[in-house]
Amino acid sequence: MNALSPFGWAYAAGAGLRNALYDRKWFEVHSLGAPVISVGNITAGGTGKTPVVALVTELLAENGEHVCILTRGYGRREPGKRVVVSDGSSILADAETGGDEPVELARRLAGTAVIIADADRVAAAKFAREEFGVTCFVLDDGFQHRRAARDLDIVCIDATDPFGGGELIPAGRLRESPANLRRADAIIITKAEAGTDIGKLEQEIKWLAPAAAVFRAESSISGFVELSAFLEGGQKGRPPALPGPAFAFCGLGNPEHFFATLRRAGAELAATQAFRDHHRYTAADIDRLTASAKAAGATAFVTTAKDAVKLEPELFSLPCFVAELGTAVLPAEAFQALVLDAVQENR
Fold it and tell me: Model-level pTM?
């Protein structure tokens, strides 16, 4: 308990009432007109949800689906405006207009999916079907967005901080009670490679959600790409290791996991700097980072794809690299079958 706990209790009461109204069907749930896979979480920020969204999208696209990712696009300049981040072949928005995570997904998926940022996912789905002929949807950050019907509800739980301090926002990081995991069809323990007692966490999850399938996701770094090449979408400049000691920086919900993942990959880090999640970088930020990096003896910078879409290469006097992060959900065959079956059974 802390000074903000009473506010957390009020938040919990509001979230509980809203869920009860949906459970009792007093609030309407809308069909999106095509199969829907939702990927969400119960804690704010840093659960490793975005790589899972990308993985699910790739699975569906590889099996012939024309996929649309529906996202709110947190942190964008005009949150009430609908923005087509990708039409399935080209990236049509930058991080300021479309949001950093949607643009990161657009670059990562490279023409695999339509991506639409819109707070009204129901209206956006209708638009996507009419304009792009999509055959299924991936609902990004959809666990609390109960207005949209879904055929498979996937929840990501961070192995390094599974229940956000045990209190609801703003006292902790929980967005709703862990008891509500019973709504989930599948639960993925993300960052499993960094967890301390995954077996115990699995038991707790199975007690909370006995009907849900439980998977583990592991993160790794496959290589690095120069910032300019990353932003241009090219394939050049992809060294397997960084050129000497690097200064790592990021604006993530869980920055320490990124730094730890770099070290596990063998990167030598001279120093690190964490910014708030979804941070928008200024020229002054880069100047301060450069001064800190040189003082620490770094010969290069390294950051994430989510951060890279908000950076300008010409502002850096030291080489800047983007870490290529990969996520594997295990057991892979069971997870693939769960996703594909959900789509096929709900045509």
Answer: 0.93
